[in-house]
């Protein structure tokens, strides 16, 4: 676990920027590679150390990720940790052949979503995690394998999701060798009570090993859910600059929880992030200019932190 | 306390709509009285029972509240509880002569803000609460007196605010005879740790007597702060439809915490509100049409609650 502890220290909060991946999945106007590089560089200069830079998918169908090699290189040049989605065998192959630091496999919390979204059972998805781990061990032992559990707090197809099932899946992913597991409220169904309860159980399951909480602000609960997660032991939180990232299952909905607001939240709860809000403002300006048709969300960026008070706990 | 307990039951959550007061203070395009009536009626039909309908101020300088008598009548006609700000002796006089159900006096948490905003000391503001109570007792014993403590979680002039001072002021307001005290994060300085800590102490101070938490979403913490307040015993929460209500001390900032999102939050935490989200959507459409230049916020209204899952705890 030593490499994992270097990347995701158990004793502090890590914020992962997922906007360059999740935020671009449904974007209307795709930013240029040059703009994405500038956005990443500005956010890295602000102190962000972890980026999901894309997804290993066919460039013809997913042009937003056609430049994934360039984005991995940009992340590396910025001295930050790069992660990319690997949704099938070909994605895993491509990731292992690339310099990306972290493979992100996805497992659905429900059988219905697993079949509909990835045309495989949950068991087959866990087996794919095991395969990624085995090939990583053989060919690129320095990389991390992340297993993200989609729909972990409610499913657009199946509705309620039993926390017992999510925890069993998390345990199966860890048993398959995943370095880190993520819990995703993919469609923003949860309130803070559900997030807090799931994180408390996940904290107990993982012990000193960190796990990721991935939240969407679809119903305005994003920051409250992040607070509940942090209060219950989560130490790695996904977010996106300006809350980029709509949801295919909730048209017009807001996207990921807003990165800037999460920095303020974490610091106010006594978790230093090492991230400069002024620097995030500069990064946001780049992203906004590069994606003129996109809705950017959040409140902190408008008001800035209190100028005359101690807002860090 | 029996009248108080009828209006603000201690054993359930009450949401107060402050948009017709706080939401109009800085509005660019003022809605017509007819539109405001329709907005209030639609929200009342959705189950909202408590409205701040305006402020007793000179109509020439505050045209947005010139129709306060009509709005009190509209609230009464809807069978809902009406409250209005009374910022000075004349306001108290006017309120007592009107059929409004609740007088809202304002006390600043800091001496600097009290002097700058109301040109009186905090002690004089508490004395004004006592005067409102005495005159109410003599002339209109059915009305409630509410004392709202502005800047209770941080001050645009003084910065940090000691919770000891806020609690001492709350105690002074109660000793002056106020039926209910409100704690306001007027400029949205706080995160959930500060809100939770203050509410825990306020819950201990007030015992079975309810108090109000009034939150602004200036830095995106509104819903998280409301969750912390509810988790620590607050049972009356102010909010405004679409988060209307900018802040004079934070230009461009978002306003009050979003009513629709707070309904979802409260229900998800196991607090039934009796409020129908579809009905709120209809009310919002009226308000949006009446205030075309205004920014409406929130996320729940776009996505709606999960259609296929139990989102109420």
Automatic annotation (TrEMBL), chains A, B:
Pfam families: HMGL-like
Family statement drawn from the similarity comment of this UniProt entry: Belongs to the HMG-CoA lyase family.
UniProt-listed SUPFAM superfamilies: Aldolase
Domain Pyruvate carboxyltransferase: 13-281
Protein name stated in the entry: Hydroxymethylglutaryl-CoA lyase
UniProtKB keywords: Lyase, Metal-binding, Plasmid
GO molecular function: hydroxymethylglutaryl-CoA lyase activity; metal ion binding
């Amino acid at each position: 676990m030593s490499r994992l502890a270097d990347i995701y220290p158990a004793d502090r909060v890590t914020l992962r920027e997922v906007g360059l991946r999740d935020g671009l999945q449904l974007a209307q106007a795709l930013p240029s590679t040059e703009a994405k590089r500038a956005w990443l560089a500005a956010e890295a200069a602000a102190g962000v150390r972890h980026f999901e830079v894309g997804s290993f998918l066919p460039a013809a169908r997913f042009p937003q990720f056609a430049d994934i090699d360039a984005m991995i290189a940009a992340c590396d040049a910025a001295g930050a940790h790069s992660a990319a989605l690997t949704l099938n065998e070909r994605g895993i192959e491509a990731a292992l052949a690339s310099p990306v630091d972290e493979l992100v496999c996805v497992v659905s919390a429900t059988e219905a979503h697993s079949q509909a979204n990835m045309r495989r059972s949950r068991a087959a998805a866990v087996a794919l995690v095991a395969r990624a781990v085995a090939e990583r061990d053989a060919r690129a032992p320095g990389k991390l394998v992340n297993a993200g559990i989609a729909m972990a707090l409610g499913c657009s197809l199946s509705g309620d999701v039993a926390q017992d099932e999510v925890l069993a899946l998390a345990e199966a992913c860890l048993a398959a060798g995943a370095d880190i597991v993520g819990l995703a409220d993919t469609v923003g169904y949860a309130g803070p009570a559900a997030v807090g309860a799931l994180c408390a159980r996940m904290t107990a399951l993982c012990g000193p090993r960190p796990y990721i909480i991935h939240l969407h602000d679809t119903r305005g609960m994003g920051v409250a859910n992040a607070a509940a997660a942090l209060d219950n032991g989560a130490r790695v939180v996904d977010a996106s600059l300006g809350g980029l990232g709509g949801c295919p299952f909730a048209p017009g909905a807001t996207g990921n929880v807003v990165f800037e607001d999460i920095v303020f939240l974490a610091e106010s709860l006594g978790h230093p992030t090492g991230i400069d809000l002024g620097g995030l403002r500069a990064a946001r300006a780049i992203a906004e200019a590069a994606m003129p048709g996109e809705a950017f969300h959040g409140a902190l960026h408008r008001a800035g932190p209190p100028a005359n008070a101690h807002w860090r706990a």
